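As a warm-up, study this chain.
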Amino acid sequence: MADINIIPIEIIDHILYFTKNTVEELSLISKYFNANIKKIRITNNKNYPRIKNEHLQQLPNLKFLDLYLNTNITKIPNLPRLTCLDLTENDIITNESILHLTNLVYLNLRYNTRITCLSNLINLTELNISTNHTVLNNGLKNLTNLVSLNLRENSKVTNEGISKLVNLTSLNLTENKLVTNEGLLNLTNLTKLDLSLNNLITDDKIINLHSLKSLCLIGCVNVTINSIAKLTNLTSLILGSEFTNNDLIKLTQLLHLGLYFNQTITDSSMLTLANLTSLELWRCDKITDKAISTLTKLQTLNLSENEVITNQGISTLTNLTILDLSGNEMITTDEISHLCSLEPIKIIY
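Now compare it with the structure written out below.
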């Protein structure tokens, strides 16, 4: 075995997947490893039953811990430097195991069924309780330092739970059926808002969120161009099938645009968005090479499942650094080679 003491610190700091690698032994026998490791994922570790509660106690510098679907770790010891904890779909860890972790700034409780009390975790700045049915309004009342909150498909938190979280800058209300306009009344610091498949938030409230920079409206039927056009700080917008050319031509300040399953927006409105640096076209058949070829400032382009844009459309996009071609059969290797010869570019298949 190689001498663990000569492993570069940047490697030690990397996240280790105990589910895929045999590095389990390092955490059990090496004092050097234990003293230096900062990030660990021990997810779904049925194949590594030897990793138990006591082994976490040997990791005093641990900052990031992922226990997604973990069944062997039943209690989290006092880890004074732990700031990030992921308990997604974890049915083992209870309230008692996290109340002492007062230095946490990030907590993920997506699909979690055991944690109900967060009152001691006053330093949290980012919380994910999407598809969570155990954390109630009272669980959020002390979390006034939160800047990011995910309530996607959450069935418990209402207007009362978020109304005093005035420091929020990012809020996800995708498929949320409890939070209404009233809940957003005091959240004037919001810069990012996701209202996908949300039918409760309307123009009346959106128009007052003057700080918004990023807005997602896929499947949202009650927010229209009437309010969006007045958001002068808005630079990122993601839309579904509900919007048309007449809506888009009013938003010339956009830098990022995402269009999903839209069959009404065509080249004519895209030609007005010369400032775009990022574009996503998912199953949008009305936008052709003619418009794409003029968007020469694009740095990121997502053509996943796109059946319209060809080599000709992207040949002029010499500033691209990221090109997503997942499920795309229109762009050929010849054009990819051409683009890569002009600028280093990341291709995603």
